[in-house]
Design goal:
Blueprint lengths: L2 H47 L37 H5 L14 H20 L3 H23 L4 H15 L7 H26 L6 H14 L4 H23 L10 H22 L2
Helix pairs in contact: 1-3, 1-4, 3-4, 4-5, 4-9, 5-6, 5-7, 6-7, 7-9, 8-9
Amino acid sequence: MTVLPEALAAWAVPIAAVFGLMIGSFLNVVIHRLPLMMQRAWEEEARAILEQPEPGTAPARFDLWWPRSRCPRCSREIRAHENIPVLSYLLLRGRCPGCATRISWQYPLVELLTAVLFAISILHFGPTAAGAAALFFTGILIAAAGIDARTTLLPDQLTLPLLWSGLAINYFGVFTDLESAVIGAIAGYLVLWLVYHGFRLLTGKEGMGYGDFKLLAALGAWLGWQSLPLVLLLASLVGAIVGIALILLRGRDRNIPIPFGPYLAAAGWIALIWGDALLALYLP
Protein backbone atom coordinates (compact mmCIF):
# COMPACT_ATOMS: atom_id res chain seq x y z
CA MET A 1 0.00 0.00 0.00
CA THR A 2 2.97 2.35 0.53
CA VAL A 3 4.77 1.64 -2.77
CA LEU A 4 2.81 4.15 -4.82
CA PRO A 5 3.25 7.11 -2.41
CA GLU A 6 6.97 6.34 -2.09
CA ALA A 7 7.31 6.15 -5.88
CA LEU A 8 5.46 9.43 -6.27
CA ALA A 9 7.68 11.06 -3.66
CA ALA A 10 10.81 9.83 -5.46
CA TRP A 11 9.65 11.32 -8.76
CA ALA A 12 8.11 14.48 -7.30
CA VAL A 13 11.22 16.66 -7.56
CA PRO A 14 12.12 15.86 -11.22
CA ILE A 15 8.45 16.14 -12.18
CA ALA A 16 8.34 19.55 -10.48
CA ALA A 17 11.46 20.62 -12.42
CA VAL A 18 9.95 19.62 -15.78
CA PHE A 19 6.67 21.28 -14.82
CA GLY A 20 8.67 24.37 -13.88
CA LEU A 21 10.23 24.51 -17.35
CA MET A 22 6.77 24.54 -18.93
CA ILE A 23 5.38 27.08 -16.46
CA GLY A 24 8.50 29.20 -16.96
CA SER A 25 7.74 29.34 -20.68
CA PHE A 26 4.25 30.64 -19.87
CA LEU A 27 5.66 33.14 -17.34
CA ASN A 28 7.77 34.60 -20.14
CA VAL A 29 4.52 35.31 -21.98
CA VAL A 30 3.06 36.94 -18.87
CA ILE A 31 6.17 39.10 -18.34
CA HIS A 32 6.08 40.29 -21.96
CA ARG A 33 2.35 40.67 -22.57
CA LEU A 34 0.75 41.74 -19.30
CA PRO A 35 2.34 45.24 -19.36
CA LEU A 36 1.19 45.65 -22.98
CA MET A 37 -2.31 44.58 -22.01
CA MET A 38 -2.27 47.11 -19.18
CA GLN A 39 -1.11 49.82 -21.59
CA ARG A 40 -4.00 49.04 -23.95
CA ALA A 41 -6.48 49.15 -21.08
CA TRP A 42 -5.12 52.52 -19.91
CA GLU A 43 -5.41 53.93 -23.44
CA GLU A 44 -9.03 52.79 -23.69
CA GLU A 45 -9.84 54.31 -20.28
CA ALA A 46 -8.15 57.59 -21.25
CA ARG A 47 -10.08 57.66 -24.52
CA ALA A 48 -13.35 57.18 -22.64
CA ILE A 49 -12.53 59.88 -20.06
CA LEU A 50 -11.49 62.37 -22.75
CA GLU A 51 -14.56 61.39 -24.81
CA GLN A 52 -12.41 60.72 -27.85
CA PRO A 53 -13.95 58.81 -30.76
CA GLU A 54 -13.40 55.08 -30.98
CA PRO A 55 -10.89 53.90 -33.58
CA GLY A 56 -12.35 53.04 -36.96
CA THR A 57 -11.53 49.35 -36.66
CA ALA A 58 -11.82 47.19 -33.58
CA PRO A 59 -8.41 46.40 -32.08
CA ALA A 60 -7.16 42.90 -32.71
CA ARG A 61 -7.43 40.44 -29.86
CA PHE A 62 -4.37 40.54 -27.64
CA ASP A 63 -4.09 38.62 -24.37
CA LEU A 64 -2.00 35.91 -22.75
CA TRP A 65 -3.36 33.28 -25.13
CA TRP A 66 -3.66 35.06 -28.48
CA PRO A 67 -2.05 35.80 -30.90
CA ARG A 68 0.55 33.07 -31.16
CA SER A 69 4.08 34.04 -30.19
CA ARG A 70 6.12 35.50 -33.02
CA CYS A 71 9.41 37.24 -33.68
CA PRO A 72 9.06 40.97 -32.85
CA ARG A 73 11.21 41.92 -35.85
CA CYS A 74 10.13 39.70 -38.78
CA SER A 75 6.73 38.61 -37.32
CA ARG A 76 7.49 34.97 -38.08
CA GLU A 77 5.30 32.72 -35.92
CA ILE A 78 7.18 30.52 -33.49
CA ARG A 79 6.47 26.89 -34.30
CA ALA A 80 5.82 24.21 -31.71
CA HIS A 81 9.22 22.54 -32.04
CA GLU A 82 10.88 25.96 -31.66
CA ASN A 83 9.10 26.58 -28.36
CA ILE A 84 10.54 23.79 -26.24
CA PRO A 85 11.83 25.36 -23.02
CA VAL A 86 15.61 25.95 -22.98
CA LEU A 87 16.29 23.22 -25.57
CA SER A 88 14.92 25.24 -28.50
CA TYR A 89 17.00 28.25 -27.44
CA LEU A 90 20.14 26.13 -27.51
CA LEU A 91 19.30 24.44 -30.83
CA LEU A 92 18.50 27.79 -32.44
CA ARG A 93 21.71 29.23 -30.91
CA GLY A 94 19.73 32.07 -29.46
CA ARG A 95 18.59 33.49 -32.80
CA CYS A 96 15.34 33.70 -34.77
CA PRO A 97 15.45 31.15 -37.63
CA GLY A 98 13.70 33.66 -39.89
CA CYS A 99 15.75 36.84 -39.56
CA ALA A 100 18.61 35.78 -37.25
CA THR A 101 17.63 38.41 -34.66
CA ARG A 102 19.11 37.52 -31.29
CA ILE A 103 16.59 36.07 -28.83
CA SER A 104 16.73 37.58 -25.36
CA TRP A 105 18.51 35.49 -22.72
CA GLN A 106 15.54 36.27 -20.48
CA TYR A 107 13.56 33.36 -21.95
CA PRO A 108 15.83 30.43 -21.02
CA LEU A 109 16.79 32.16 -17.76
CA VAL A 110 13.17 32.43 -16.57
CA GLU A 111 12.51 28.82 -17.62
CA LEU A 112 15.56 27.48 -15.79
CA LEU A 113 14.91 29.64 -12.74
CA THR A 114 11.32 28.42 -12.50
CA ALA A 115 12.44 24.79 -12.86
CA VAL A 116 15.05 25.14 -10.11
CA LEU A 117 12.76 26.97 -7.68
CA PHE A 118 9.91 24.53 -8.31
CA ALA A 119 12.24 21.60 -7.62
CA ILE A 120 13.53 23.18 -4.40
CA SER A 121 9.97 23.95 -3.27
CA ILE A 122 8.85 20.33 -3.70
CA LEU A 123 12.08 19.04 -2.18
CA HIS A 124 11.34 21.19 0.88
CA PHE A 125 7.58 20.68 1.26
CA GLY A 126 7.12 17.39 -0.59
CA PRO A 127 4.18 16.55 -2.89
CA THR A 128 1.70 18.05 -0.45
CA ALA A 129 -0.86 20.85 -0.37
CA ALA A 130 1.86 23.11 1.01
CA GLY A 131 4.11 22.11 -1.89
CA ALA A 132 1.41 22.93 -4.45
CA ALA A 133 0.78 26.29 -2.76
CA ALA A 134 4.52 27.00 -2.81
CA LEU A 135 4.58 26.43 -6.58
CA PHE A 136 1.77 28.96 -7.07
CA PHE A 137 3.57 31.43 -4.78
CA THR A 138 6.83 30.94 -6.69
CA GLY A 139 5.27 31.40 -10.13
CA ILE A 140 3.52 34.64 -9.19
CA LEU A 141 6.70 36.04 -7.63
CA ILE A 142 8.77 35.25 -10.74
CA ALA A 143 6.24 36.95 -13.01
CA ALA A 144 5.96 40.00 -10.73
CA ALA A 145 9.73 40.32 -10.38
CA GLY A 146 10.26 40.00 -14.13
CA ILE A 147 7.69 42.67 -14.95
CA ASP A 148 9.00 45.05 -12.29
CA ALA A 149 12.58 44.60 -13.48
CA ARG A 150 11.57 45.46 -17.06
CA THR A 151 8.97 48.18 -16.52
CA THR A 152 9.12 49.25 -12.81
CA LEU A 153 5.47 48.16 -12.57
CA LEU A 154 3.96 45.65 -10.15
CA PRO A 155 0.53 44.81 -11.61
CA ASP A 156 -2.49 44.50 -9.35
CA GLN A 157 -3.39 41.47 -11.50
CA LEU A 158 -0.54 39.65 -9.70
CA THR A 159 -0.14 41.26 -6.28
CA LEU A 160 -3.81 41.24 -5.26
CA PRO A 161 -4.49 37.57 -6.11
CA LEU A 162 -1.28 36.74 -4.24
CA LEU A 163 -2.54 38.67 -1.21
CA TRP A 164 -6.00 37.08 -1.10
CA SER A 165 -4.71 33.59 -1.84
CA GLY A 166 -2.26 33.91 1.07
CA LEU A 167 -5.10 34.74 3.45
CA ALA A 168 -7.23 31.91 2.04
CA ILE A 169 -4.44 29.33 2.34
CA ASN A 170 -3.58 30.34 5.87
CA TYR A 171 -7.24 30.09 6.85
CA PHE A 172 -6.27 26.42 6.98
CA GLY A 173 -2.96 27.16 8.71
CA VAL A 174 -0.77 25.95 5.85
CA PHE A 175 2.19 28.29 6.46
CA THR A 176 1.08 30.30 9.49
CA ASP A 177 -2.08 30.93 11.49
CA LEU A 178 -4.80 33.18 10.14
CA GLU A 179 -4.27 35.89 12.77
CA SER A 180 -0.58 36.20 11.87
CA ALA A 181 -1.49 36.28 8.17
CA VAL A 182 -4.02 39.10 8.60
CA ILE A 183 -1.64 41.13 10.76
CA GLY A 184 1.14 40.42 8.26
CA ALA A 185 -0.94 41.75 5.37
CA ILE A 186 -1.84 44.92 7.26
CA ALA A 187 1.67 45.50 8.60
CA GLY A 188 3.32 44.73 5.26
CA TYR A 189 1.30 47.43 3.52
CA LEU A 190 1.61 50.02 6.28
CA VAL A 191 5.37 49.66 6.76
CA LEU A 192 6.25 50.62 3.21
CA TRP A 193 3.40 53.14 3.05
CA LEU A 194 4.96 54.97 6.00
CA VAL A 195 8.44 54.72 4.50
CA TYR A 196 7.12 56.10 1.19
CA HIS A 197 5.41 59.13 2.73
CA GLY A 198 8.24 59.81 5.18
CA PHE A 199 10.77 59.80 2.33
CA ARG A 200 8.50 62.02 0.22
CA LEU A 201 8.11 64.56 3.02
CA LEU A 202 11.86 64.68 3.65
CA THR A 203 13.09 64.78 0.05
CA GLY A 204 10.12 65.75 -2.09
CA LYS A 205 10.65 62.58 -4.15
CA GLU A 206 8.79 59.30 -4.40
CA GLY A 207 11.06 56.49 -3.24
CA MET A 208 8.90 53.56 -4.38
CA GLY A 209 5.58 52.68 -5.93
CA TYR A 210 2.32 51.46 -4.42
CA GLY A 211 2.88 48.05 -5.99
CA ASP A 212 5.70 47.48 -3.48
CA PHE A 213 3.25 48.05 -0.61
CA LYS A 214 0.87 45.47 -2.04
CA LEU A 215 3.61 42.94 -2.68
CA LEU A 216 4.90 43.16 0.89
CA ALA A 217 1.32 42.91 2.14
CA ALA A 218 0.94 39.73 0.09
CA LEU A 219 4.17 38.32 1.54
CA GLY A 220 2.86 39.12 5.02
CA ALA A 221 -0.36 37.27 4.23
CA TRP A 222 1.58 34.18 3.15
CA LEU A 223 4.34 34.17 5.75
CA GLY A 224 2.86 35.99 8.75
CA TRP A 225 3.98 39.21 10.38
CA GLN A 226 6.88 37.45 12.10
CA SER A 227 8.71 37.07 8.78
CA LEU A 228 8.39 40.69 7.67
CA PRO A 229 11.59 41.96 9.37
CA LEU A 230 13.53 39.15 7.72
CA VAL A 231 12.01 39.88 4.29
CA LEU A 232 12.76 43.60 4.55
CA LEU A 233 16.29 42.96 5.78
CA LEU A 234 17.10 40.54 2.96
CA ALA A 235 15.47 42.70 0.28
CA SER A 236 17.18 45.88 1.45
CA LEU A 237 20.57 44.20 1.77
CA VAL A 238 20.50 42.66 -1.71
CA GLY A 239 19.00 45.82 -3.23
CA ALA A 240 21.71 47.99 -1.70
CA ILE A 241 24.48 45.68 -2.92
CA VAL A 242 23.10 45.53 -6.46
CA GLY A 243 22.45 49.28 -6.57
CA ILE A 244 25.96 50.15 -5.42
CA ALA A 245 27.43 47.67 -7.88
CA LEU A 246 25.47 49.21 -10.76
CA ILE A 247 26.69 52.68 -9.81
CA LEU A 248 30.33 51.63 -9.46
CA LEU A 249 30.63 49.16 -12.34
CA ARG A 250 28.28 50.62 -14.93
CA GLY A 251 28.27 54.27 -13.94
CA ARG A 252 24.50 54.17 -13.44
CA ASP A 253 22.99 57.49 -12.44
CA ARG A 254 22.03 57.21 -8.77
CA ASN A 255 18.91 59.27 -9.51
CA ILE A 256 17.56 56.55 -11.83
CA PRO A 257 15.14 54.43 -9.79
CA ILE A 258 15.93 50.76 -9.18
CA PRO A 259 12.84 48.53 -8.88
CA PHE A 260 12.45 47.09 -5.38
CA GLY A 261 9.95 44.38 -6.34
CA PRO A 262 12.50 41.77 -7.52
CA TYR A 263 14.35 42.00 -4.20
CA LEU A 264 11.12 41.72 -2.22
CA ALA A 265 10.12 38.71 -4.31
CA ALA A 266 13.48 36.99 -3.82
CA ALA A 267 13.44 37.70 -0.08
CA GLY A 268 9.87 36.43 0.22
CA TRP A 269 10.72 33.16 -1.51
CA ILE A 270 13.80 32.65 0.67
CA ALA A 271 11.70 33.32 3.76
CA LEU A 272 9.12 30.75 2.63
CA ILE A 273 11.72 28.01 2.21
CA TRP A 274 14.33 28.81 4.86
CA GLY A 275 12.55 31.44 6.95
CA ASP A 276 12.23 29.29 10.07
CA ALA A 277 15.96 28.54 10.13
CA LEU A 278 16.87 32.17 9.50
CA LEU A 279 14.41 33.45 12.10
CA ALA A 280 15.93 31.10 14.64
CA LEU A 281 19.25 32.88 14.17
CA TYR A 282 17.96 36.15 15.60
CA LEU A 283 14.88 34.96 17.53
CA PRO A 284 16.23 31.93 19.40
